[in-house]
Amino acid sequence: METLSQVVSMLFGTPLIPAALIGLVWGVIGGAMPGLSASVTMALVLPFTYALDPMSAIVLLASVYIGAEYGGSIPAILIRTPGTNSAAATVIDGFELKKQGRAGEALGISLWSGVVGSLFGLAMLIVFTEPLSRFALAFKPMSYCALGVLGLSIIASLSGGSLLKGLAAALVGMMIATIGIDPLSGVNRFTFDLPDLLGGVKPIMVMIGLFAVAELMRQSGGVDLATQAATSVRIVFPSFPMMKRLAKPQGIGCGVGLVEGLLPGGGGSVAAFFSYNEAKRWSRHPEEFGKGSVEGVAAPEAANNTVASSSLIPLLSFGIPGSNSAAVLLGGLLIHGLIPGPRLFEQNGDVVMGLYVGSFVATLAQIPIGLLILPLCMWLVNRPRHVLAAFVFMLVLSGVYSINGSYLDIAMVMSFGLIGWLMLKNDYPFLPAVLGVVLGPIVESNYRRSLLLSGGEHSIFLEDPIAVGFLITAALFIGFSLYRERRDALARKKEKEVNANA
Amino acid sequence: MKKGTARVAFAALAIAFGGPAFAQQAYPNQSITVIVPYAPGGNTDVVGRLVTEQMSNILGEKMVIENVAGAGGTTGSMRGSRARPDGYTLLVGQMGTHAASVGLYPNLGYDPVNDFEHIGQLSDTPIGILVRKNFPAKDLQSFVAMVKAAPDKFNNGHGGVGSTSHVSCLFFTSLIGARSPMVAYRGSGPAFNDLLSAQYDFLCDQIPHTVEHVKAGGVRMLAVAIPDRSDALPDVPTTIEAGLPQFQASGWNALFAPKGTPRPIVDTLNAALRKALEHPGTKGKLEMIGAIPPRAENRTPEGLRNFVRSEIDKWVPIMKAANIDPPK
User: Which residues touch B84 (CB under 8 Å, ≥6 apart)?
Assistant: First the structure.
């Protein structure tokens, strides 16, 4: 009862609701801008939080995070450009749905899944912070390495037709990820004396190049540039039967997002890919994935929004951010004299409470604000295609330039676009390459770190039960994929023989 | 033709009188960009924001932080050194970018002493020696004895090559003549996380983000490497008390302007900085995160220049002796 009256007085006695709403709107806009990641969107408002009281400041930042995780899916669906890293998996089926004239449905599903993911993450944050933070500490470098290997095993199912082409693409991705200063030894790798390359290639550059620029190149080769099928700008919110169908992929997304948010370094993009893959594995309609599956939009969108809340668990309890965005929030806490750690909940219980309430307001407000913004976005992408293509080019390049103010970044995105276009022409799948860029560093650095810890003994991997579990699962995944590939090949061969005999 | 001449004459007059008139406008008359060469949320970022917030109030113009992360802070520092020297682009540098990196990068791209106008130090962040909570040694003396007795046995974590946690532990192990395998992490946050879960044995790090965990018993701090005990952790002895007085180390942050910034502007900024450091609110917030206000002599431009020089003299031989693969 006391808590309830505290909540009510917070809602109406403090600027908590406006902070949540402003944060959310800015987050959705920033998240939807290609190149502006969730963390940069948050960093941009950080200076404005000085003037606010600590509670409003933290609520504002957390709401920006929630909004940005959702906003990233809008360009992913509409223009094949992930607005944030973690929206990359949404591109796969979201853009397919758009091509089928079902953009309104896809946007409605991503909105609904974002709300479900945020609510779940928030519930976990409020109820289980203590036990979950202990779980985060159980992850050792060996566990992270094995988790990355498990992630890479997804390549098989993301490869589309040919496993060999998928592996080749993944290898290219992992090679791109080695560019920059090696964090373990300090040696420069493939930097060609360019200072801008010392910090490495950001995954978002690769994603924007492979997805957006390659698609623009493909479109400009088409003959139907001037024509544009008129599509509705109406957002289709999922019906009850649809919600029931989406519950399973959303559940998978929530579970995966919870675990990834707890682990520093994982972050939303890994969670989104994992949940996409698992949703496909457990779906009744796996054949629809990649061809416009509603479940393929729901799972990653639920996952990345769950991360926005679950990454606050290690942040609040240890002061260790589970994602780049959580790191900005950490800065916000420190500036306001709030020190995260075991005693935050005792000393600043009111601020933590305000954070919960504010996040809840922002989560629910996603629906009305989404419904207001989305028709405008859809109107924009329904302009004549040649105008749209130029607009998207401008949006993408200015977004990329805004990150570091570097021309090299633009050259890189254009090069990745060219590589993507060549891959498209030759039926090489993009997703393994993106996965390689994201997971390569996680696998490599944790593998080497584990060996440093053990003095070079590989047996250290067998001593960590979490690592063993992940590695066995990965082996099963790969074995199953190989078996299926072999079985299909045999079946095709048989079919050919039958046809030849007939 | 006449008209053209008149135009040229007018333009010449405008340049002759307009330029100085503009320059005579009181500094500052527009917002000031402050480059922080690390990602938002880290120690340098937070200290930079805390102090410049107060300086903005004093100067009457907003100081806007721009995070330019990459290459251990050297990318942003290089940009800071090459900005236009008009007082509207400043840089927050620190021990890594302005001392240790000299020993690490053969082609650093800037000279921390000669490519900057030094404004003043922002803060000191003491270094503490931390061990996992179940480590057998309870004090610094027995810890040193154990590490020396068993070379290559006890793992030393750090936040990446060239980071404060890396170079300060190099200093520590070279002082006691011990050898320990180094385990690198990406940033001192992840490194500290693994010390909390006892994945490795010891870490030397700036104390701000460890204070709450030391108090709660998640990790043990054996000593702080400063002359006086830290107000944030009054129970932890200093290295002098603990019998290793040579180990004095702290991370520090300071404000720099590009070479050639006019002296009056440097003086204006320095006065604002000193006033901001005396402000009770700013001072209190710095102390609460475990940072300490800089010594008086380092708050002047000349003092900071000498300090940077002495820090380079201190850290570069340590980096060289450790024989780290330099980034090529």
Answer: B258
Q: What is the CATH number of the domain that holds B150?
A: 3.40.190.10
Tokens of B39: 């990602």
H/E stretch holding A385 reads: helix A385-404
The size of the A-B interface in CB pairs under 8 A is 147
CB under 8 Å to A438, separation ≥6 — which residues? A85, A151, A173, A177, A203, A269, A270, A273
Are B180 and B116 part of one and the same domain? Answer: no
Chain-chain contact of A452 with B152 (C-beta, under 8 angstroms): no
Contact B161 A188 (CB under 8 A): no
Structure tokens at A83: 């607005």
Q: Is the Cβ–Cβ distance between A451 and A128 less than 8 Å?
A: no
Q: Which of A194, A449, A457 to mutate to test the interface with B (most CBs of B within 10 A)?
A: A449
pLDDT at site A484 = 76
Among the listed residues A101, A135, A27, A10, the one whose alpha carbon sits nearest the alpha carbon of residue A363: A27
Query: Taken in order A201, A204, A206, A209, is the CA torsion positive or negative?
Result: negative
DSSP state of B26: P
B64 confidence band (pLDDT: 50, 70, 90): confident
- Residues B131 and B220 both lie in one domain: yes
Asked if residue B255 and residue B119 are part of one domain, the reply reads yes
CB A270 within 8 A of CB A278: no
- Cβ B185–A404 below 8 Å, yes or no? no
Is residue B17 a part of any domain in this protein?
no
Q: Cβ of B50: how many Cβ atoms within 10 Å?
A: 24
Asked if the model's pLDDT at residue B61 lies above 70, the reply is yes
Q: Are strands B202-206 and B182-184 parallel, antiparallel or unpaired?
A: unpaired
- Please check whether residue A255 is in contact with residue A221, taking contact to mean a CB–CB distance below 8 angstroms: no
Mark whether B161 and B188 lie in a shared domain.
yes
For residue B28, cis peptide bond before it (omega within 30 degrees of 0): yes
Query: Quick one: tokens of B48?
Result: 């930079």
For B310, the token pair is 């002495």
| Positions of E strands within A196-333 | none
Let me know whether B135 and B214 are in one domain: yes
**From the centroid of its chain, how far is CA B9?**
51
Per-range mean pLDDT, top range of A108-117, A186-195, A403-412:
A108-117
Cβ pair B285, B50 in contact under 8 A:
yes
Taking the CA of residue A156 as centre, how many other CA atoms within 13 Å lie in the half-sphere pointing to its CB?
Answer: 18
Residues A73-114 have pLDDT tens digits of 999 998 888 888 889 899 989 999 988 888 889 999 999 999
Q: What is the pLDDT of residues B165-194, one digit of tens each?
A: 888 998 899 889 888 888 888 777 778 888
Instruction: Assign residue B47 the CATH number of its domain.
Output: 3.40.190.150
pTM of the model: 0.78
- How many domains are contained in chain B? 2
What is the predicted pLDDT for the residue at A128? 86
Residue A60: CB partners within 8 Å, gap ≥ 6? A19, A20, A22, A23, A45, A48, A49, A52
pLDDT band per the 50, 70, 90 thresholds, residue A244: very high
> How large is the ipTM?
0.73
Q: Is A196 an interface residue toward B (CB < 8 Å)?
A: yes
The helix or strand, by DSSP H or E, that contains position A361, with its residue range, turns out to be helix A349-381
Q: Is A427 exposed, middle or buried (0-12, 13-18, 19+ CB in 10 A)?
A: exposed
